[in-house]
Design brief:
Chain lengths: 245, 62
């Protein structure tokens, strides 16, 4: 009886994040994406020293910031799971880790594309680049661990503990260009009184980040729904195995 | 230590610059998101099929 209730509850909640509601977010994401592209390509002025290559910034930095935000959500969801053992928190944790990894991948791919014409090299092992790569590897291993270990109580608990530990690389990665001398440019955003951009560049940056944030919400909702359905599937399978034994 | 970016004194790119890197970066970024959306959609279909099969099995057993 209790199990039937849980299954019905899961189904009802899954319907709430169904395709109808998500369609609005997808529409908003498409509009923002078009605006972001227009800002980055047509409206934002060309930067003085890097020239047109600086335009990669409008996709490179929003990718990193969106990834960091998703990892922060993963951290909060993991802490909640460790205290409350809430399956919903676990579903948010897996959804945010996967979506965060997708956005960090964008940052890691666009970085070398920008670096090659500006620095003359694709990659260098400076603090910022290395810490970002380490962050990517950590969350990839987090997802791999979740995929390879059998479903049950131990899997989400182990994943949540690891996620809390992994998150600490995020602020260190963010601060790397402030703490150490790096090949990576010094901070342009929140870099102090001598940092910043021309006002029109800020608009292009905010447009790009807004588009990515809306897509983060869309993807996270879809992935959360899947995680909840997976939990229900595992629950039904466990019940069937119990009946059979 | 901080960086300040300003606009070019005159519009237009430097002579040796090409748009290839910029086009590649934007294409890869949005393509990666597109591929991820398609992967999620395919995974959703598989999950729903699996769920239906298990639910049907459970109903039969009852």
């Amino acid at each position: 009886m209790e199990q039937k209730k849980t299954a019905e509850n899961l189904s009802a909640r899954a319907a709430k994040t169904g395709p109808g509601k998500v369609a609005w977010w997808i529409g908003a994401g498409m509009i923002l994406m078009a605006w972001a592209l227009a800002e980055a390509w047509l409206i934002a002025p060309t930067e003085r020293t890097m020239g047109i290559y600086q335009r990669i910034f409008y996709v490179h930095v929003p990718g990193a910031f969106t990834g960091f935000l998703a990892f922060f959500i993963n951290f909060i969801a993991s802490v909640i799971y460790l205290f409350r053992r809430s399956p919903r928190a676990d579903a948010w944790a897996v959804a945010s880790a996967e979506v965060g990894l997708a956005f960090l991948s964008i940052n890691l791919i666009t970085g070398p594309i920008w670096a090659k014409p500006v620095w003359g090299i694709w990659w260098t092992w400076d603090a910022r680049l290395t810490l970002t790569l380490v962050l990517w590897v950590m969350y990839a291993s987090y997802l791999l661990l979740r995929h390879l270990t059998p479903a049950g109580e131990l899997q989400p608990r182990l994943a949540a503990a690891l996620a809390v530990f992994f998150f600490f690389d995020t602020p260190i990665d963010y601060m790397a260009i402030r703490w150490w001398r790096t090949q990576h440019p010094q901070p342009v955003i929140l870099g102090g009184p001598n940092a910043g951009m021309a006002p029109a560049m800020w608009v292009a940056f905010w447009a790009g980040w807004a588009a990515f944030l809306v897509w983060m919400v869309v993807l996270m909702r879809l992935r959360y729904r899947q995680a909840r359905q997976r939990q229900r599937l595992d629950e039904l399978r466990r019940a069937a195995a119990l009946r059979a034994s | 230590m901080a960086a300040m970016w300003n606009t070019a004194p005159q519009s237009g790119a430097k002579g040796e610059e090409t748009m290839i890197s910029v086009v590649a970066a934007f294409t890869v970024a949005w393509l990666a998101l597109g591929v991820y959306v398609l992967t999620l959609a395919a995974r959703q279909r598989g999950l729903e099929r699996e769920l239906k099969a298990v639910e049907a099995e459970a109903a039969e057993e009852k």
